[in-house]
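S.,

Sequence below, as promised.
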Amino acid sequence: MSATAFNFDNWGLFDLLTGAGVPEKQARAQVEAIRKTVVETVAAVREEVKVEVSAQVAEVKAEVKKEVADHRLLDEKTRQELATKGDVGDLKIECAKIRADAEVKLAQLSAQLSTKIEQIKSETVKTVVSPVVGSTVATIVGMSAIMLFLFGHYWGK
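The prediction came back faster than expected:
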């Protein structure tokens, strides 16, 4: 799973706060606190996604192993039945068909696994990352509005 870079615009927020009249020292402290919270939240979400995807991959791998084992059993049973008939040519043809069928099914399962992983990634971003980032931004905006109100009220006296 490749990590996606996450950029937090420290200077943009700093400029917004100082432009609204927040003292520089306080604006720096607020920007750093917000940046730290956002970075920690994104790291936690990434870890949750990694764990979820790993669990899904393990589940699909177990299913694939079971399918392969089932096909091997079927392959062995078929080989024994045909050998008792003494028809070696038919045995080779039947084994080749079973092997080809197993390879096709393995390829299909592999494609389904890839699709499922992509769906999980997409759903996780939609359901976990987006709300966290949205609520963090809403919190920042709300905190900024309160600070502007309080500072405006205090300095307006």
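DSSP finds three helices and no strands in the chain.

Coffee later?
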